[in-house]
TrEMBL record:
Full protein name: Helix-turn-helix transcriptional regulator
InterPro entries with a match to the protein in the record: HTH_HxlR (IPR002577), WH-like_DNA-bd_sf (IPR036388), WH_DNA-bd_sf (IPR036390)
Gene3D superfamilies, A to Z: Winged helix-like DNA-binding domain superfamily/Winged helix DNA-binding domain (1.10.10.10)
Superkingdom of the organism of origin: Bacteria
Entries under Pfam families matching the protein: HxlR
Coiled coil stretches, renumbered: none
Gene Ontology molecular functions: DNA binding
Occurrences of domain HTH hxlR-type (ranges): 5-110
């Protein structure tokens, strides 16, 4: 088997690029980590836990993750409105990656 030649490759066709397209963004990994750690989380709980994220940014990021089928949004018809978020099976399949990042950070934190 010959060596791969970079001039014949394109990053956009790799699995890495596809995965990155789903999780790339300032808060996407943080939201996924939050749901991994706490399971089912309400919007305001997540906002408070993450801190520094605006309501608009949190809302739009959650919508993107939902469109990519990484999280599930459950809305309850009550007053005041209650909305909960959790990882889908597809989102849960990212847990080994998130765990690996946590382990790496624990080992290399200064």
């Amino acid at each position: 088997m010959g060596a791969r030649c970079i001039s014949k490759e394109q990053l956009e066709t790799t699995g890495f690029s596809y995965t990155l397209s789903l999780i790339n963004g300032k808060y996407k990994m943080t939201i996924l980590y939050t749901l991994m750690e706490f399971g089912v989380v309400r919007f305001n709980e997540m906002k408070k836990y993450i801190g520094g994220i605006s309501y608009k940014t949190l809302s739009s990021t959650l919508k993107e993750l939902e469109m990519d089928q990484l999280i599930h949004r459950e809305e309850y018809p009550q007053i005041p409105p209650k909305v909960e978020y959790s990882l889908t099976e597809r989102g849960k399949s990212l847990i080994p990656i998130l765990d690996g990042m946590c382990d790496w950070g624990d080992k290399h934190r200064l």
